[in-house]
From TrEMBL:
Keywords: Membrane, Transmembrane, Transmembrane helix. This is TMPPE metallophosphoesterase. The gene is Tmppe. Gene3D superfamilies: 3.60.21.10. Residues 205-380 form the Calcineurin-like phosphoesterase domain.
């Protein structure tokens, strides 16, 4: 029987990742209600950072072997330039691994340069792993189809060197493109949605949808202030924030949140939690902070949005807690649709705020009379090649969906980004929704 010491380092990393994952599940199931918020907050973040890093170790070893070890037998291996290259690859991998720990130590009003560099390397790391794997698979397929077996010749060596060089070049180009794309202001996307049973007096009501701003290591006050200015320029009747506003504790990042106080939609500004709010373990303090800025959290509750023209014309705006609260066993929180829709009859239009598209699906299974659901969470995949995974894991991916005869679901691609300051194959968005009375 092979001992743990005899296992290759990739297998050891996989075992370590499994142990960390098991500890995460154990702590979520049995320790959640026994630990105070501060301890739980640090434990969850530390576990997630360790889990991500142990998984990444396998990829990092592959990157090192492909971009460094492959060339150690070449004539250039003893040159000064190759030494610099080895240092550059090592620093790149170290920064990528360190990105997950910046959330523990480097969160402030504005992002630290180190955090931006670390998360940029993480995005480049994802791209590089993808290209190394893809080109490696193409190479193996070519060998198989050509029937060349395992013979090594000059042509084979050239192709072996070509794979990492091409992967690195593609990664650099797409990293620059992704950074430039994400640095642009969010696009304003105007969408008209017919809402069944919306009073005629409320026709053309304007709702501005924000989602996934992710105030934290790489998004700060300056970007939030820009978003607020853009929202105010649209002059919405209602503004809604459907989760993942933050990745940090309210006390630490409070100065960065101050621009939200400038939102002045006449029919109110509303907020529901996303999964990342629960990762902060600081939801109660966030609710109080948002209330101080005249933003109303909808904690499994609803409000009547009354027409300025007639008090008898109204619709029900409801919000549910994110489903991650149930997974984390976050005390006093969790998706409760019955409570959220209490008093919302099918005689009036119902608009629901639910962070995750899967929560939207569950809500419609329980209450098919909901007319419109506004969600986020997917980021539109944010960066290639993660788009495919986000598409497969969510029942609604991005944009507008019609469900049944009179129900619509709109999924925002996110107003900023999470961590990695890049977007490839997606674009940050502020959504201007015009509600139409049929």
């Amino acid at each position: 029987m092979i001992s743990f010491k005899q296992l290759p380092i990739e297998a050891k990393a996989a075992v370590a990742a499994g142990v960390v994952f098991f500890s995460m599940m154990l702590s979520r199931s049995y320790l959640a209600e026994k630990l105070d918020f501060r301890t739980r907050r640090w434990l969850i973040r530390l576990q997630m950072a360790l889990f991500a890093n142990t998984l990444m170790l396998v990829g990092s070893l592959h990157v090192w072997r492909s971009t460094v070890t492959t060339f150690t037998r070449s004539s250039a291996a003893s040159s000064f330039c190759f030494m610099l290259w080895k240092i550059a690859v090592f620093m790149f991998l170290a920064l990528a691994h360190s990105s997950f720990f910046t959330l523990l130590f480097l969160v402030a009003e504005e992002p630290y340069f180190f955090s931006l560099a670390a998360y940029t390397c993480l995005g480049a790391y994802v791209l590089l792993i993808f290209f190394l794997f893809t080109l490696g698979s193409v190479e193996q397929a070519y060998k198989f189809l050509a029937g060349r077996g395992a013979k090594a010749g000059t042509g084979t060596k050239n192709r072996t060197a070509l794979k990492p060089v091409l992967s690195v070049l593609l990664t650099i180009v797409l990293t620059v493109v992704g950074l430039l794309n994400a640095s642009q202001p969010p696009t304003v996307n105007s969408v008209e949605i017919p809402v069944h049973k919306l009073p005629p007096a409320m026709n053309n009501l304007k709702v501005v949808l924000l989602s996934d701003i992710h105030l934290g290591p790489t998004v700060g006050k300056t970007k939030l202030a820009m978003i607020v200015r853009m929202v105010k320029a649209l002059k919405p009747d209602i503004t809604v924030i459907v989760g993942d506003l933050t990745d940090a504790e309210a006390k630490i990042i409070r100065p960065a949140v101050e621009p939200l106080g400038e939102l002045d939609s006449p029919l109110g500004t509303y907020f529901v939690t996303g999964n990342h709010e629960y990762y902060t373990s600081d939801v109660s303090n966030w609710f109080e902070l948002l209330k101080s800025f005249n933003i109303q959290p909808l904690h499994n509750e609803n409000v009547k949005i009354v027409s300025p023209k007639s008090a008898s014309d109204w619709f029900c705006l409801a919000g549910v807690d994110d489903i991650e609260a149930d997974v984390l066993r976050y005390s006093g929180h969790g998706m409760d649709l019955k409570k959220a829709l209490r008093g919302c009859s099918s005689e009036h239009a119902i608009v629901l705020l639910a962070h995750q598209p899967i929560a939207a699906k569950w809500a419609l299974q329980e209450r098919p009379d909901i007319n419109l659901i506004l969600s986020g969470h997917t980021h539109g995949g944010q960066i290639f090649p993660l788009n495919a995974g986000a598409y497969l894991l969510n029942p609604f991916f991005v944009g507008l969906y019609k469900v049944g005869q009179s129900t619509f679901v709109y999924v925002s691609p996110g107003t900023m980004y999470y961590g990695i300051p890049m977007r490839l194959g997606s674009r940050a968005e502020i959504t201007e929704i015009i509600l139409r009375s049929p």
